[in-house]
Every structure is written in structure tokens, then in C-alpha cells.
């Protein structure tokens, strides 16, 4: 499971940092940047159910899951290279021939290449994630799905750590001078270096996964249920198979879907705009302003990446504590507590922004000073959010597995439906955050304020509506009782 977990981590850190820097330098507006993130939910809604369905029936001698993991990882490598070299590709297709350090206008050919590469990255990542989670369930044995999700979360944290470590340095263009071109300045060249390192590491991890994650080949129709007359029972096919399963959800699953949706609504503003927030509100930079403002923005994004590195370290350590905490106090209390933690953190983010923008009048660039103490508080906040993030990546899936097990199966269906409750909030945020922020001087503060409200509502709703899963029941599913 090394490659899929690391691929997820590398994808998140590369895409968040890329969206902030590259989209701005290529002339994409804040609202269009938000719209770009629609590729994630669309891919999650269409690709994951389809790939999961076909991987269930795959009869390749390599197994059901590994062929899809191999294909997806290779496409991720291609997409990352396209995104990293989008400025050079755009210049070759007809963009401006001026030096990138002098020209700050739009580069539409590069922007189109970048958007296509970004969408390919998301579709490829979803090609990997569905079979990866299924492979975890296939190989978990007596350890159970909860332990498997904890392992997945820890390896994803490792991928984040490696990605953010490579992205937090400004020296790639010095170590590899050929990365810097007329169309690609220092910041762009540094991203190229980080991406190429990510590609090498992903290929290494993919090789390990293909060699050691051995599967028993699927035998086709002989493993499918049969009718009374001996005929093979037909199964639903296509993406509608997931939606058809809504009527067969186990008791308590609708409440899980509701709280999951509210929880992700509270997280997406941070996931989308974390480093952008550091560059604009904390460092008071402007990616399309003067050279000094651009440098300030880039420095803010770099420090934001370091904050995400701290976040990932805390995420990795916390992932090993989630299962013991759920066994001790129950998964519902752990989940609800994480919502209240996010509520406080998102509110703090908005307050820190106002603190930083002392003379704020609706436009984030009105403030021209920065505070060392504010930067330190921001880094502490980034690290603090690693704890609820570890809960987000594991507890909802463990609760879903328990509910499915109590019904006697259907974990694949429940997981697919759970993904829909993650996709819908992402669509809402992607469509609404950009236009909403534009009303407030193109800043990120309103989105964080709304996120705090959603986290509070999610915590309260979860406290009353989430199913009561006893510690004994959770031990049973975690220990492989099903």
C-alpha cells in the first residue's frame, strides 16, 4: 500500500502549492482558481465508482487492483510533469517570449496546459485511490479495516512530509540550473525540481507495491452469487450502481453522510487556500503586483508549505493514536471533538488575518507590514490542525466499515456513497468560495469564517445524530471480527 498512500500525499501537496503559485502567474483569477478544483469532485464522483466497479471484476493475472494502481500512478507521473513544465510548453505553443521576471500578464497557452495537467492529475489520483482502498480491505485479514486505514493515513502523512519538504526549499534552481528557463523563473524552477523528485519517489514506491502487495487473481463468474436456478446473478453496472445502493444503506449511515458532508465543508477552505492565505493575508504579497509584492507572496507560500510540513508530521504521529482513542472513548466522541477543534482553528485563522491586516478596509493588500509573532502563531496553527486531519482521514471510514459489517457486508457500496458526501461539499466550496471572496477584496477570510460555522454545526449534529458505536463493537471491527 506504499505507492497509493504516498501518491495521495504527493498529489495534495503538489496541487495545493501549484494552484497558488502557477495559477496566479499564468493569469488565472481567484474565482477561476476555485473553479479549477471542480476536477476533484467530478473525478471522485465518476472515476472512483467506475474504477472500483471494474477492479472488482478484473481477472488479470496480476490481481484485481494492481493493474489499476499501476496505470493510475503512471498517469500521475505524466500529469505532474505536464503541470510542472506548463510554462515552457505554453511558450513553445505561442505565449510571450519576454523574460518571465519582466512579464506579469496572462499566458493563456500555458494556462490551458496547466489546467489540463491538473485535471489529469486528479483523475489519475482517483484511479489509484479506489483500488487502493479495496486492496487494503483485501489484504487486511484479521487486522481489520480500521488498522488498514490508520496505516494508509500514516503513509499519506509521509508522502505529505516528503512533498512539502521538497517544496519548502528555494534552492532547486541552484542545484539543477537547467530547470530555469526564459519562461520559467526561480519559483517555477523550484516547483519543477520538487515535482521531478516526487515522480522518482512515486515510481520507487510503485515498484515496491507491485512486488510485495500480492493478490490472488479473480476467477470471474465463479465467485459471483447465483440464483436458485443456478444462473449467475446480474450485478448493477456503471456509475449508477452507487446511487442505486442508497436504498440499501445500513441504519445510521444517513447520519454519517450528513456529518461527513458538514465536516468536509469546514475543511475545504483550508485545503484550497492554506498557502495562498499565508502569501496574501500574512505576508501581504500580491502575485501580480510589484517585484517586492511577488517576492513577499512567494515567501509566504514557501513558509506556508513549511507549515504544511509540520501539519503532516503531526498527522503522521496522530494516525497511530486514533484507533486507541476510538477504543477508549468511542469513535463518535473522537469525531465530534475533531469538529470542535476545527471550529476553533478556522475561527482563529480569521482572527489572525484581521490581526495581521491591522488597517484592513476590505482589501488584503492595504496592510504592508508583517509580524514575526503572527508567523509563529500561524505555524503553530498549521501543526495543530494535523490532529483533526488524522481523524478526518480515518474515523469516518472506520465508522462506515462498522455499520456495513453490522449489516453483513456491502462495505464497498457504503464507502462509495461516503465518497459522494465528500464530493458534494467540494463542489459547493469550489463554486462559491471564489465569488464570495471577491466580494471581500479577493481575500480568504470569509471562507475561513464560514468554515468555522460549518465545523460547529457538524460537531453539534454529530453529537446527537451519529450512531452510537460501542467500544466493544469498534474493537470487533478493528480486530478483524468481520
UniProtKB/TrEMBL annotation:
Transmembrane segments annotated in the record for this chain: 35-55, 67-87, 107-125, 194-213, 256-273, 334-354, 374-401, 413-433, 445-466
Biological or metabolic pathway of the protein: Glycan biosynthesis; sucrose metabolism
Source organism superkingdom: Eukaryota
InterPro entries: MFS_trans_sf (IPR036259)
Keywords, ordered alphabetically: Cell membrane, Membrane, Sugar transport, Symport, Transmembrane, Transmembrane helix, Transport
Gene Ontology MF, one: sucrose:proton symporter activity
UniProt entry tagged with the keyword Transmembrane helix: yes
Membrane-topology annotation of the record: Multi-pass membrane protein
The keyword Oxidoreductase belongs to this UniProt entry's keyword annotation: no
Protein name, entry field: Sucrose transporter 1
Biological source species: Urochloa decumbens
